[in-house]
Amino acid sequence: MKMLFARTLAVAAVIGLAGCASTTVKKDAFAKPPRLALITIEGSAHGVFTSDSEDTKILADTVPTCLHEIAKSRRIHLLPARTVMHARAYAAMKNDGATITMQLVPGYKNISIDKERGHLHALAREVHADGFVIMYLNYGENDSSSFGIGFIGIGAKKPNVNIGIAAINPDGQSIWQENWSVVGDHGIVTVDGIGSYSKLIAQYNALTQQACDDTVQHLEKQFASNQ
C-alpha cells in the first residue's frame, strides 16, 4: 500500500501520526462526542499522472462523499464547513498554501499548528469546538503484477485510496489518528507505464466512500472492547 505524501508525513512528525492501516484514539477526549472543526483538507492523484485541474475535479467529486461518511460517526460531531470557513478566527489564520504534490480543497487552508496556536484557541471559542481535524486523501495505483517481454514492461494496476486523519485538541495534542488504504478490485493493464488511467479515476468516489466509512468503523471499534 502507498503511504501518504510527504506533506502528511511532515504533519505526522508534529502531531504523532505514523504507520499504515492504523487507528489511535485518546479515549478520555471522547467522554462525550467532541465537536471537531475541519481546518485543512488536501489531496492528490499525481500517482496516476493527473494534472492539477484533474486533481481539483477528483477532490470536488470525492471529498463531499468522504465528509458525509465521517459525519455519520456517533463518536464525533463534525462541524459544518460553513461554520468554520465563516469564522473570524479562521479568516485570521495564515494560509501556507498547498504543497507541490497536494491540492487544497477550495475554502480550506494549510495551517501551521504551532504558529497559529492563538488563533486555534480563538476558533475553538468562536465555534464551540473541542478540537480540529486535518485530513489528507491520496489517490494512486497499486502494482498487482508485472513482467517483461524483451525491453517492454507489462503491468497490472489497481486504484488505491489512502486517507489520513489527525484530530487534535486546541493545544495541538493528538486525540485521534487514522491512516487507512483501500484498493479497488478492477484494474488496468499498462505497457511501459502507459495505460487507461482514467478507468482507475472512475472508481475513486466509491473507494473514497469505503475508506471513509472504514475510518468510522475503526473509531467505533476502539470503544467496543470496553462495552
β-strand amount:
25-35%
Annotated CATH topology:
Rossmann fold
Structural class: alpha+beta
**Which stretches of 5+ consecutive residues score pLDDT under 50?**
1-20
Largest sheet: 8 strands, mixed
Rg over CA atoms, rounded to whole Å, is: 18 Å
The number of distinct structural domains comes to: 1
Helix content: 25-40%
Secondary-structure arrangement, i.e. CATH architecture: 3-Layer(aba) Sandwich
Total count of helical runs of at least 4 residues: 7
The CATH class designation is: Alpha Beta
What report would you give on this structure?
By secondary structure, the chain is α+β, with helices and mostly antiparallel strands. It has a single domain, classed as Rossmann fold (3-Layer(aba) Sandwich), CATH 3.40.50. Helices cover 33% and strands 30% of the residues. It contains 7 helices and 8 strands. It has helices at 6-15, 52-70, 81-85, 88-92, 117-127, 198-201, 204-224; strands at residues 22-25, 35-44, 77-78, 103-104, 131-149, 152-168, 174-183, 188-191. Strands 1, 2, 3, 4, 5, 6, 7 and 8 form an 8-stranded mixed beta sheet that branches. A hairpin with a 2-residue loop joins strand 5 and strand 6. Helix 2 (52-70) packs parallel to helix 7. It starts with 5 loop residues before the first helix and ends with a helix. 39% of the residues are buried. Residues 1-20 have low confidence and may be disordered.
